[in-house]
Structure prediction request, 294 residues.
Amino acid sequence: MEHKSGFVNIVGNPNVGKSTLMNDLVGERVSIITSKAQTTRHRIMGIVNTPDAQIVFSDTPGVLNPKYRLQESMRGFSEEALTDADILLYVTDVVEDPTKNADFLAKVARETVPVLLVINKIDLLKSQDELERIVARWRELLPNAEVFPTSAKEHFNVDNLMKRIMELLPVSAPYFGKDALTDKPARFFVTEIIREKILLNYDKEVPYSAEVIVEKFDEKEGAIHIMAVIYVERDSQKGILIGHGGSKLKKVGTEARKDIEKFFDKRVYLELFVKVEPNWRNRDNKLRAFGYIE
Prediction:
């Protein structure tokens, strides 16, 4: 039997469940998931290996109209995903306005590679009629796409989606080692886990102004010593992040450490620091240092 391999890129608007779907398909927690929009900032690959196939899934930031340089870079990751896919998964959900980001959708409609339209969160619907109306509307917008109503959270219809992806994969040698789970280094997942805890523990602009850099990742036999810096844009944000007597930062650190220990299956010693880096989201040198632009 010939070996199949391919790039399956997941695109769509913010908050439709792309990361939840990706994690379900890969079977590992590769993308951070919170209920806040713009959780994913980078393009993250999750790799599924079987004896006869390798699927390289790629989770991308939600498509948005950029307000600053960071978002331009995020939009770039989504646009890029249209150019190098063997199969495209366009993810929407049952509450989204289908006309949102029509220009991006028009590009998806012009794609020559197979497009699988995933209508997520169908567990929120009351009736089959509602679903049929939504499917009919999307068939007009993406006439060439195959439609998969799913609930990634409930793992509903995800196996059928996976089966179809396997069928559509091109014949090819694997692109990565057969034991690879992702293209990202270990410290990337540390920053994502810490960033997730910031998204969950703070409101308003603080999570969106925060970026995490791992400055030390010292792995020994049974433990890892990690030193990470959280950058924010203003002194006031630094104060909010640290909290009274350091209480908020300690909570973030504790929650992150537990998840990092689970991720690496090792004891973790985590130190967190907060620094102010004014207006980093609009500064190319900072965005380069944080890995958003080449």
User: Anything to note?
Assistant: The CA atoms of residues 66 and 72 lie 5 Å apart.
